[in-house]
Amino acid sequence: MLCSIYKSLKKDNTYLYINKKDDFADVPAQLMSTFGKPQFVMAIKLEGRTLALADVEKVKQALSTVGFYLQVPPPVTNLLEQYKADKAAK
């Protein structure tokens, strides 16, 4: 399965995977509005591949069922809250 990957110029570390280059027909208009103008990153073959921040099987499933996959960055760890929790545990 081939897919094209685009990055958001509005949202850092946010990527959109679609089935066909420049075909955003399956992506909801509201998502495209929030995502902003997509910047093409690359086209890749998903078979036999691992992805840095996404489960390749989830990506393939989403592409097959809804026609796109949105990769958002992992949540930022609140270091102060983590420190307080560690201190309270001691």
From TrEMBL:
Residues 1-84 form the YcgL domain. SUPFAM superfamilies: YcgL-like. Pfam families: YcgL. Signal peptide: none annotated. InterPro entries: YcgL-like_sf, YcgL_dom. This is YcgL domain-containing protein VXS00_02565. It comes from Photobacterium piscicola.
